[in-house]
Amino acid sequence: NNRIAIAIDGPAAAGKSTVAKIVAQKLTYIYIDTGAMYRALTLKATNESVALDDETSLARLLNNTTIELKQSDEGQRVLLDGEDVTLSIRSQLVTNNVSYVAKHPEIRQEMVARQQALANKRGVVMDGRDIGTHVLPDAEVKIFLIASVEERAKRRHEENILKGFSSDLEELKKEIEQRDLIDSKRDVAPLIKAEDAIEIDTTSLSIDEVAQKILSEVYQKM
Ligand code: C5P
User: Where is ATP annotated to bind (predicted)?
Assistant: First the structure.
């Protein structure tokens, strides 16, 4: 059977990475979390006090940065210049700043090139904001996942509590709305559904139901 490329886009906390991982596992495809790459650069920029509105300096920083996505038994690890930053890229500081880094055209150009190189073989599930529109415009299956902001905040909140992190539902709602706004309004490759993407509203669906819907689209293309 045919190995294909699957693009999963959508707003923040819509469950993209959760279902992308399940779909990849089912198909024994590789999973690529493109948001982790923008997060890793954001972490490095804040550590090195590079201003987030300084596109030239950020682009120079990125050119001197390696970001690796490693599949391991415990899931995907993110290595920034060889150092494991899997947990630290999920910090509140990085989450609140990443959209300012991701809006710069020079940064996006380099990230898209790296992502395309990673996906150069078929048999890939990639999630992000511009995968169906820019990174893999010829992906055989394109999914656009949405859910109400209340539901997305609630899911993230429950996830945080399970992990033992402190969490404030109203704060989460604001953070998610703010990030979606910046991601949707930027000039280059904004968050938007590709014309040929299938939209799935996950508000009242379980994780398994969403994964099943995506897999049934995939089996039609294989
Ligand atoms: O997917 P995740 O929430 O980790 O993405 C973090 C941020 O990275 C997004 O809010 C967005 O600003 C940026 N991003 C992007 N394009 C992608 C993936 C993520 O601009 N393909």
Answer: 10-18
CATH number (domain holding residue 151): 3.40.50.300
- Between CA 190 and CA 194 the distance in angstroms is 11
Domain region containing 197: 5-221
Q: Is 189 annotated as a binding residue?
A: no
- Residues having CB closer than 6 A to ligand 1 are 12, 34-35, 38-39, 98-99, 102, 128-131, 179, 183
Among the listed residues 175, 154, 164, the one whose alpha carbon sits nearest the alpha carbon of residue 98:
175
Residue 197 DSSP one-character state: P
Structure ipTM over 0.95, yes or no: yes
Q: What is the value of pTM for the model shown?
A: 0.96
**Tally of domains within the chain:** 1
What amino acid is encoded at 82 in this protein?
G
Per-residue pLDDT of the chain (222 residues; tens, 9 = 90+): 689 999 999 999 999 999 999 999 999 999 999 999 999 999 999 999 999 999 999 999 999 999 999 988 778 899 999 999 999 999 999 999 999 999 999 999 999 999 999 998 889 999 999 999 999 999 999 999 999 999 999 999 999 999 888 899 999 999 999 999 999 999 999 999 999 999 999 999 999 999 999 999 999 998
